[in-house]
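Field reference: "sequence" (input) and "structure" (output). Example, V-type proton ATPase subunit G:
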Amino acid sequence: KGKRLKQAKEEAIAEIDHYRLQREKEFRNKQTNVMGSQGNLSAKVEEQTTEAVRNLTSSYHKNMESMMKKLLSAICDINPEVHPNFRHAV
């Protein structure tokens, strides 16, 4: 009877190990599928970010000179005028 119990216990452990390995394999497959799609998403986000930075940099270089000229002309062209709200008190 003791021998039969040992044999049953060993068979149960073998079945449990087999089931555990099967479930772990399924889990790894699902994890790979999910992480694979995340990898694709991160690559797309990285590509979009690079494109946005490239566009901003080119826009900066294209408009910098004209904006500096406008800014300097606004600062350097001094036209002294009396403010419209100024009231001369006598």
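The CA atoms of residues 5 and 11 lie 10 Å apart.
Residues 2-76 form the longest helix (75 residues).
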